[in-house]
């Protein structure tokens, strides 16, 4: 058996013995046994010249053992034939780079290809290395393994707090602020023979602004941006003191913290110390201060991220025995007690029991009136929202294109709701359908909003500078927003309204109306896209 060493360029087999054993005037024929075990003409990669020399131009696609039938016929008709086997052997080839996902940009095509991308701290980029590299020898039993390095010299499957390889998948997940800035990751594929191929990844890691946090181990977290602590106080007891110095701390060392303090009750005072957040609280409530005080201390950083420390102070009257409440017929059973009652008016003068009852009834009446006024105000507000919703829906019904629909809604919120900014963004590459200014890369959007929309359809309150610039543009100077996921079946995206001041879109605000409008918008967008696709398909 003759063996051809395949170099993937040219393999050569010369059967000189044909001329050695047969006369010059002998006719030589060579047939090739195909996959059906039938002798046919030679394939294109095999040829024989007039001198009886058989040549092979083989590559890895031709690896295997083949049978040739050599027949010699002399001028008198005598003939002889013989089967000869030839083997095309495999020559190991190095792995080759194929491609990276679209969110990587090629910056160098030298000996080692270089690519770059930008991600935020705590975000993850995933690369399937089996699709990134290939090897022509895999179909002949070869396989690839993968390694990473930060210098191209020392290789492993893990770079602490930056990247790791698991079952052929590269996970890039920077975890600490030390990783911010430009980081290099070399990736190489190695076959079973030790041949390898490498690429260089250049990753610009952006710091993610973190909000201030409440530095009180005793406080209870009641929401993502609020911590709460409660104290029960007794009137006329020793002075109440609460050390809230260094109440707020920002993990971003270069950030500054601004604070907004609530209006304190008259019996409570605070003391600030230069260079430290929080305060000292000192006070001594009296009997007249019985009740509950809810005090919100707010802090926000330069990017507008906020945190709230809610302090609940309940001044309790533990000396009142509920005798009359539990015994409403007390005075009928004890009429002599009426002569011993000593009720004081706010002026200090003594008053009768009936007068005291009238005063309490007036207080109850005032509270009922306030409650009624609040109910009427809510009714008026709901009526206004209903009318506004009606106008928005009618406007959307009149729109026939996505551009008209979105323009109508954005204009309505800015003009009728006095919104500082309103924007609809689609996570799509289809600029023709949605408009260049309203589309963004789905990968970039996913990286930015993955944690924001975890287990919810709307985010409210202060937003980071990164999100503000991404949604509204850097010039908008939006520090607080309400951002909703579109509820479309045909495309993903967001609807956002923003404010240049705090307090308009806090997490405590009612969002039912906004979610209703976004749901309606999503249905109109689906209708238009489906109608356009149907019309296009019928042409």
Care to describe what's here?
The two termini are 63 Å apart. The chain has 5 domains: 2-89, Immunoglobulin-like (Sandwich), CATH 2.60.40.10; 96-206, Immunoglobulin-like (Sandwich), CATH 2.60.40; 215-315, Immunoglobulin-like, CATH 2.60.40; 325-381, no CATH class; 399-538, 2-Layer Sandwich (Beta-Lactamase). By secondary structure, the protein is α+β, with helices and mostly antiparallel strands. A hairpin with a 7-residue loop joins β34 (480-485) and β35. It has a 5-stranded mixed β-sheet with strand order 1-7-6-2-3, with no helix packed on it. A 5-stranded mixed β-sheet has the order 9-10-18-17-13, with no helix packed on it. 23% of the residues lie in helices and 34% in strands. α6 packs antiparallel against α10 (512-538).
